[in-house]
Amino acid sequence: MNLPAADLGIMAEHLPTHEGVISKLRIFKGIVDNQELKKLIQLNIQMLREHVRAMLELIDPNRKGEVKLAEMPDIQINTEMLQLSEQEKDIVLETRSASKLMGSDNFNSALMMKDMNVKNIHILMSYQDVRMQILYNMVVEHVDGDFTPRVTEAMQSKTHEKYKHILKE
Questions:
Q1: Whole-Å CA distances, 42 to 6, 73, 104
Q2: CATH number of domain containing 129
Q3: To which H or E segment does residue 2 belong?
Q4: Helix/strand/coil for 156
């Protein structure tokens, strides 16, 4: 099956990125001692390898039919087992950031892709990257590794009042 040139170019650009992130995750997995974080990083590696498999299948000129992306398995994180060292906290912040960037890249790429199978696969990849980001975020929140400032109720109300006219006819 002949792909549009844009789709092939985007995937040819994605593959080395996936290779680099997988390599980085393998290094992180070797560094961390916490088994729950190790399990999460392994899931991330498996997911990214599945993304590579799907892209290679999409690129294969001898392919017949539609390519499917494997579902990401559910994972349970035992938060009571999440006592992380400072280095492990840094690693989970980096892995969360990598998932966020990969998700954004996959979604933006999908918007530019022409082949519907290629486009849909990249939207699903983006969704899986977001799921990884959420899982890493659960760990970050549990170990107080992040600070999210909050607005006041008054500021939220003021904003709500300012824009609710948009819904009026």
A1: 31, 12, 21
A2: 1.20.1260.10
A3: none
A4: helix
Q: What is the pTM of this model?
A: 0.90
Packing angle between helix 35-59 and helix 116-142, nearest 10 degrees? 170
Token pair belonging to 21: 């992130």
Whether the per-residue pLDDT at 1 is higher than 80: the answer is no
d(CA 60, CA 3) in angstroms, rounded, equals 9
**How high is the pLDDT of residue 18?**
96
Number of domains in the chain: 1
CA distance 35 to 100: 23
What pLDDT score does 81 carry? 81
| pLDDT tens per residue across span 97-133 | 999 999 999 999 999 999 999 999 999 999 999 999 9
CA–CA gap between residue 30 and residue 26 (Å, rounded):
6
CB 92 within 8 A of CB 39: no
Domain containing 89 equals 5-167
Residues 165 and 101: their CA atoms lie apart, in Å, by 35
Averaged pLDDT, 12-21: 96
> What residue type is 132 in one-letter code?
M
